[in-house]
Amino acid sequence: MAELRVSIKKSRLGSIQLHNHNSIQTNTNNMSTHPAVVTVAARAPLEIARVPTIEPTGRQLQIRVEWTASTPLDLHQADGGLLVTHPQVMGSGLAGTVLKTGPDVKYFAAGDAVFGFSFATPEQKAHQTIATVPETTMGKIPSGFTMQEAVTLPNNTVTVFHTVTKDLELPLAWPVPYLVQTPNKHADTPILIWGGASSCGQYALQILRHWGYTNLLTTASTHHHAYLKRIGARHTFDYRDADVVSLVKATAPGLRYVIDCIGSQSGSLAPLAQIVDAKGARVAVLLPVILKDATATDAPEYSMDALASAAWADGVDVRGVRTHFYEDNAFFKETLQSTIVPTLLAAGVVKPNKQKIVEGATLLERAQNALDQLRQKDPSGERLVWRVAEEED
Ligand SMILES: NC(=O)c1ccc[n+]([C@@H]2O[C@H](COP(=O)([O-])OP(=O)(O)OC[C@H]3O[C@@H](n4cnc5c(N)ncnc54)[C@H](OP(=O)(O)O)[C@@H]3O)[C@@H](O)[C@H]2O)c1
């Protein structure tokens, strides 16, 4: 297969512009390049492109990307074209080894094993063998954890901190309040995590519990209930139960805080619109709203408007979560990934999602196999993780 050769133009959404489409060329400007997995069209097979290897400046790190974790956003982008300009390098969660540091880097040195959520420009993306990223998007992997384990955390722990503080407007103070003897005034306030078995749901339960929110309700398939109770849920419900709406309402009348970790128009927004009726109640929906799911045969459909996607009661405050804006919080920008997430992992507060390793003889095969498995919706609750750079790369 022909290799694509691309040059990178920066954009906040991480799209790249393709030049010399589908041609095999020698590099005319002597810039170093490395392989990246790219989308070339909606639902088309992925391809490998050679993209420029960027030298780190300022507070940047150049990282050999060894592992990534697939997320539903890969499918939203590859199949649904969500926020994509093809060809695009996907992937925003990576684990790897620091190769080089920019002159102003504070926290890292070459050789450090790191993990993080980095997404803003093409050179930061995970599905390429070398990434160049701001150091604030990385943390050191604590000893005792593999890269496969660590790489399940970054996207969705950041999502939880952003969602809870920005969209639910509930505090997650650092250091944790109990360390300074400040009780959580919301300790008994019911918070519903719709989709507790999702990666986001599991991290939401663990993080909220650690900060002293004890009245956590969640929905998930029944076989996950015992585990979800162990990691923080007080009440569990099966979302397929015909009575799920009345059961949740009876357990938490006047419910005021919800995180919808699923964002399915029929599977989560519709029941939530029946459950939540208190004026001022906040429902944070992880966008996109999925109107129609991607399958092996069908293209997906999405909406970015959570309010318009269900018949909400008057006065319910419905918010569409956009974690890509978490750096608007200057404290989180500096501290969340460099310090808070690694500390929580090291202390055992947050346990990595269970992983399933996606095999394949080449980078392209592994990336394609991962995408195919995302379409099949594995019910195990395991995170798909796969190797990016080979040992010998
Ligand atoms: N906008 C943002 O900032 C942002 C950030 C992160 C993620 N997201 C989005 O959030 C969604 C979840 O991401 P994720 O990585 O956490 O997902 P995930 O781990 O892939 O979620 C899979 C789980 O979803 C559960 N599920 C499916 N349908 C459900 C329903 N109707 N009700 C309750 N649970 C259901 C299944 O649980 P069972 O096994 O219990 O059936 C399944 O195990 C994705 O659409 C993602 O793109 C958005």
From TrEMBL:
Segments forming domain Enoyl reductase (ER): 41-385
Domain of life: Eukaryota
Keyword annotations: Oxidoreductase
Any Pfam family the entry gives: ADH_zinc_N
PANTHER family: ENOYL REDUCTASE (ER) DOMAIN-CONTAINING PROTEIN, HYPOTHETICAL OXIDOREDUCTASE (EUROFUNG)
Family: Belongs to the zinc-containing alcohol dehydrogenase family.
One GO molecular-function entry: oxidoreductase activity, acting on NAD(P)H
InterPro entries: ADH-like_C, ADH-like_N, ER, GroES-like_sf, NAD(P)-bd_dom_sf, Trans-enoyl_RdTase-like
Name of the molecule in the record: Zinc-binding dehydrogenase
Organism, scientific name: Ophiostoma piceae (strain UAMH 11346) (Sap stain fungus)
